Amino acid sequence: MNRHWVQLPERGNVAALRLIHWIALHIGRPAGRSLLYPITLYFLLTATAARRGSQLYLRRALDRQPRLRDVFRHIHCFAATILDRVYFLSGRLDRFEVRLFNDQLILDQAASGQGCILLGSHLGSFEALRALGVTIQHFPIRILMNTTHNQGMTRYLSELNPALAATVIPISGGPDTLLKVQESVAQGFMVGALGDRVVPGEKTVQCRFFGQDTPFPASPLLVAALTGCPVILFFGLYRGGNRYDAHFELLADRIDLDRRRRQEQLGEWAQRYADRLEHYARLAPYNWFNFYDYWEDDAP
């Protein structure tokens, strides 16, 4: 099962992030971006598991054996989006060109006053949407987040914008999380969740993804079924430089599950999500930020 990410050590150096933050905000984004090259090289040489995970994924996404420069580009793309979080969380959105696709869908949803599940992934940047929603469009957004992994980086990034940090619903693994989500949806909030990582003990469904069956979490879809709210897909693709593309798609107006066909129907909805995720991953292959053995190619 693709749960190995929870066992990976926290590699984010908060002191280094603070330094890059200071340089980026006081000297400029070009100076901050110039530091990404030695940082990327360092991780390319030292992060063996991440490098291997990148190779296993890129082999599928590129339909060829990836070269070392492909892995470098993959890690550098991730580093660039981490740097840009500093600007997004600091409210400095004027530095970016964000193109919106099918944005009327999200505008209409916000205007309706009805809550929804905003289902994203570790593809590109979810921070772009969160920052846009809170600072510009004033979308009522809350984010489901695993705050126990990479705690140092999570704390530091939260310090940059306490208002955005206040929108986080920590994933506890207990009924409290579900209750908070139900309350948020009932109050008209868009609850953001990432649907491409499985945590130990979580209910899963099998999906065909890049040509191989792999488990996907069922929790976001189950929550949507319980709340009876729409599910909107979001993919925020980093396009290099200061450019991002934000894509919105309606997955379902409502997810109704028949008790006798519950698992089958969950699988059908999850497969639709997996298909759209693969579509956008192929559009922007270096945006996929699950740096571990996602399909267990190296499993015994």
Write the layout of secondary structure elements.
Layout: H1 14-26, H2 29-34, H3 36-46, H4 48-61, H5 68-89, E1 97-101, H6 103-112, E2 116-120, H7 127-135, E3 141-145, H8 151-160, H9 162-165, E4 168-170, H10 175-186, E5 190-194, E6 204-209, E7 212-217, H11 219-227, E8 231-238, E9 243-252, H12 262-283
Parallel strand pairs: 1-9, 2-5, 2-8, 3-4, 3-5
Antiparallel strand pairs: 6-7, 8-9
Helix pairs in contact: 3-5, 4-5
Notes on the structure:
- This protein is α/β, with parallel strands linked by helices and 300 residues long.
- The chain has one domain (4-287).
- The chain has helices spanning 14-26, 29-34, 36-46, 48-61, 68-89, 103-112, 127-135, 151-160, 162-165, 175-186, 219-227, 262-283; strands at residues 97-101, 116-120, 141-145, 168-170, 190-194, 204-209, 212-217, 231-238, 243-252.
- The strands form two sheets. A seven-stranded mixed sheet has the order 1-9-8-2-5-3-4, with helices on both faces. Strands 6-7 form a two-stranded antiparallel ribbon.
- α3 packs across α5 and α4 (48-61) packs across α5.
- The radius of gyration is 19 Å and the shape is globular.
